Amino acid sequence: MHAHETNLQPADEWREFQAFTNLLAVSFINASTCSRPGVFETRLRETLSYTKMPAFVHYAVDGDIAVLTIDHPPVNTMTPAVAEGIIAGIARASADDAVRAVVLRAEGKTFMAGADIKDFEDDASAARLLAGFTGAARAMEDCTKPVVAALHGSALGGGLEIAMAAHYRVIALDGRVGQPEVKLGLIPGAGGTQRLPRLAGVAKALEMCVSGAPINAKDALAAGIVDAVIAGDLLEGALAFARGAERMSVRRTRDRDEKLANASAVLFEEARARAVQTMRGQTAPLAAIEAVRASTQMSFVHGLRREAELFEQCRHSVQSKALIHLFFAERAAGNVPDVPPGTRAKPIRRAAVVGAGTMGAGIAIALTEAGVSVRLKETTQAALERGMERIQANYARAVKSGRLTADTASERLARITSQISYEGFIDADLIIEAVFENIEIKKQVFVELNGVVGPECILATNTSSLDVDAMAEAGGRSNNTLGLHFFSPANIMRLVEVVRGKATSGETLATAMALVKRLNKIAVLSGNTHGFIGNRMIEMYGREAQFLLEEGATVEQVNQALYDFGMPMGPLAMYDLVGNDVMRDIERGSPALNIAGVRRPIVLPQLLERGWLGQKTGRGWSRYGKDRKPIPDPEVAALIEATAGAARIERRRIDSNEIVDRCILALVNEGARLLEEGTTQRASDIDVVCVTGYGFPAWRGGPMFYARRLGHKRVLARIEEFRARHGEAIWTPAPLFQTEGEN
Ligand code: 3H9
Description:
Blueprint: H1 10-24, H2 39-48, E1 57-62, E2 65-70, H3 80-95, E3 101-106, H4 123-142, E4 147-151, E5 154-156, H5 158-165, E6 168-172, E7 176-178, H6 192-200, H7 202-211, E8 215-216, H8 217-223, E9 228-230, H9 234-243, H10 265-278, H11 284-297, H12 300-315, H13 318-332, E10 350-354, H14 358-369, E11 373-377, H15 381-400, H16 406-414, E12 416-419, E13 430-433, H17 439-450, E14 458-461, H18 468-475, E15 481-486, E16 495-500, H19 506-518, E17 522-527, H20 534-550, H21 555-565, H22 571-578, H23 580-589, H24 604-609, E18 623-624, E19 630-631, H25 634-646, H26 656-676, H27 683-694, H28 703-710, H29 712-726, H30 735-739
This protein binds (S)-3-Hydroxyhexanoyl-CoA.
């Protein structure tokens, strides 16, 4: 048994917890009456029925089993009305003597996606939601007839929490369960941190609540979260399970304390150390650990209360607002307002990829994962073989690590036909060009494609910065042409910038958006400007980092300041990783960095002269040993000082605040310009690009969200400061901040 905080009896504890939720939940229950049978449900229903809503939970009876079906499209989120439906259904089943057990299931493609995230925006809605969850879970758990939850698709967050309040759980083969709240900067708030350790043990609960990663049906069974996996029809299986004679007793998760016994302090310390390291800067994982720890230290009801307190702290955090902003931003990114929803997306069954280098091979892998067959073309047999080896090695790694079965890997590999001719291109629905990043070479590929593809075929270029219209003209079918900028490695990275040329048709765009979604990636629409959204912004960020060095900051200081801000690595470490030669080419090609009379970084050319290209040559802005860890290089420091001295750049001490502000506001200001000129549709798209493509810390919401939180007025003031010191051209504030400077 665990140590109780006080010696209150359970009924008193419930009353106390409900009094606590009263504070949060518009006095939804009267603590003095809640312990009387039936009153709890009635009062709760009165509170939740604040407005008349359609029934989201249907009641039916199959023989002696009541079947409650949640029907709240598209993903059966929990709302007060859904909670009301569950409570009413349980009450009805309880009152019907002919009913011996209850099955709770859901319509549609998924069991429940959890709480309706929009309800977290204001305190009153959040409180009503919490009241609903608490009420529905308690009604199910209190029920004197066995309640079986039948899960399919995803039972996530509050969805799993409701399922765990049932007495038994069965799951379809394709089902998965998880507590992903941490990805929204939250912790489970409807009993998950108290019920999950009771079902799965503390270690598993910590793993799931801290990482937020879902687990599949088989693992859920092994962990004790579900009682059976149903291979055939789920409802039939659930009904049979409910009728199983030996199962016809109630079994309340809240009373199952056996698995809490072995939790040692070390387990929590290790979880904390892991979270600090792998989820750097984030507060919710630590709160989740604290809440799970409460399950081992206090009674169930006191644990619920501790969980609710921690949940509320998280809900009010800027991190949670940032992550919720990104959740909706990712989903909004796929909408293109001037392409009407009904626009036909062409089916993509057969594709071809031109170029079997790192990008081409990665794109081919991504396409096969979505069931598309791919012709992979190179110009020489040797290059083709290297590409195929890359692909085979990738599948072999996936099999070795257990991510793919050997059968699936060979099936996918068999979808790729390698060739050095254009054979079969006539049948392709889509061609993606992924050759060397040179406009002349790319244009030549488009000229060749023009003669070998069918009239309906979509032509895409995987350029990261070049002119899509120039290629479209060369290919002679501008309305079917667009950019699909995958990020490396293309089979892993989630972002694809979809670049619209001046004549790209709505149908072509709709097809591309649908395809990217099918690849399980996020599409963000960009106009056809050099570097599109992400690279154009990152150019400004990198330039500012180099200016800071010239003015007196050290390489280590600049890298550390941005790392501490939350970036995966500092900007100069990024240059060394990508290659200083590659970065120089990008800078050279950028019109924004090459305006006559405007200051340019002067140290990078010096590094290149010495062959200090970055990690690949063992030295760049830093030196690198075998472990690829950066080592400060005094020669680079001396070179920076000498170069800046020769250019008469005044050097001074620079603190990390200035480093962060200059680099991040350079990013932000360029983002605002992209928005102003219409290269991007919405500020939130910029956030999605920077977070999913460039590692901007998700818990800061992306650069535009960060700027909004700082306040546009403050952003403007800081930019004006930099402008006064560094000149007009570089720090001209984007019109967005000038017009919205009062925000
Ligand atoms: C929670 O449960 C807290 C509790 O512990 C306690 C509270 C007291 N809310 O992703 P899709 C929308 S926190 C609101 O494209 P899929 C989504 O925006 C929650 N809306 O479908 C989209 O709308 P639209 C923990 C939601 O098939 C539409 O539904 N749960 C929610 O690719 C379709 O979504 C999670 O974090 C939501 N919870 O994927 C799970 N979920 O069409 C979040 C979805 O207007 N959800 N929408 O753009 C998911 O991971 C995926 O949606 C899911 C389906 C895997 C379920």
